[in-house]
Known about the structure:
Shape: globular
Largest sheet: 9 strands, mixed
Number of helices: 11
CATH class of the domain at 88-191 and 302-361 and 368-385: Alpha Beta
Strand content: 15-25%
Strand order of the largest sheet: 7-8-6-5-4-3-13-14-15
CATH superfamily of the domain at 88-191 and 302-361 and 368-385: HAD superfamily/HAD-like
Helix content: 25-40%
Order of helices and strands: HHEEHHEHEHEEEEHEEHEEHEHEEH
Radius of gyration: 21 Å
Number of strands: 15
Structural class: alpha/beta
Amino acid sequence: MELKSNHSSPVLTDPIPVNNSRLGIHSNLLSYQQSGGSLSSGKYMTIPRKKPGKLEDVWSNGWLEAMRSSSPPRKRLIKDKDFTIEAAADDFDIAYCSWMIKYPSALKSFDQILKNAKNKKVAVFLDYDGTLSPIVDDPDRAFMSDSMRSAIRDVAKYFPTAIISGRSRDKVYELVGLTELYYAGSHGMDIMGPVSHAESGDHPNCIRSTDQQGKEVNLFQPAREFIPMIDEVLKTLVENTKDIKGANVENHKFCTSVHYRNVEEKNWPTIAQRVHDILKDYPRLRLTHGRKVLEIRPVIDWNKGKAVEFLLESLGLSDRDDVLAIYIGDDKTDEDAFKVFRERNLGYGILVSSVPKESNAFFSVRDPSEVKKFLKALVTWKKFEKA
Length: 387
């Protein structure tokens, strides 16, 4: 794995090698020597803005193409009693029907899922944005419905349940408001999980803490060293994008994101170039693309898939044959978890999407309303099984 040597982009060119330990975090967590962007400096550097017109960097390294490919086409709104759902105009065309053959509906395949879940310990992992709440123009208003909250509360009564989000852990807890769950923020770089005597609890980046109810928990933060650097980049991003109408920089503590959902497409090259100019001085940070968002994250061997493995081990479910895990998510960052599920045969990844797109998931649902139906069906099955 190497970074591009021409300093035109800090993005990864090859996958980070997986460590030989079970969690892949003990010897290779921080793989690079610091060579730009001091972690200890208290000063914040402002990068001079480039004059409009010089955008060769973001064209040549494929950023603009990635921004467009990760941004769904214009959609129409469909009203549901709990959600305002964005749905593509061609949801029911031939391409989508063909796609459904490869990624069948999790609702229509529910009996198949239950057949494999029988006599097994089921664990549930959920993304937040686009999964439990609709995608909205203002990230601070991505609220889930009361009925969805009730469904998740019921799920947590019967199954170990965790939410793994790109948002900060504190923010996603504020939005969900349920103490019965485990939370992993910043794409799994900030995990509050159960106390266990497993290897994960002895890791130097894992400390004992207490949750909102005063219960003892493990707090795992593999990117803690990067907080000063992330803060530095955050302040610079806010300053250097404040003149771009619609741009929104969000702080996730261990990573930061630049939303361009409300930015006119003609200004996407400008926002990409601004981000590029800042990140080229921080080789220990990398860029990933989400749904109309640029996400800046530390270059460490950690993602949502690793977070699932860590939580399963913390729950004492990692080495058991009678476990079936379910992960539901809608974004590119959830693919890391879907991939782990396939490679380790952990259970089922379920993609939330109303448009065809390639995925490592096994099944699909169209939108948060179908996620809620699936979760309610799980609870009904468990109640019937225990009766």
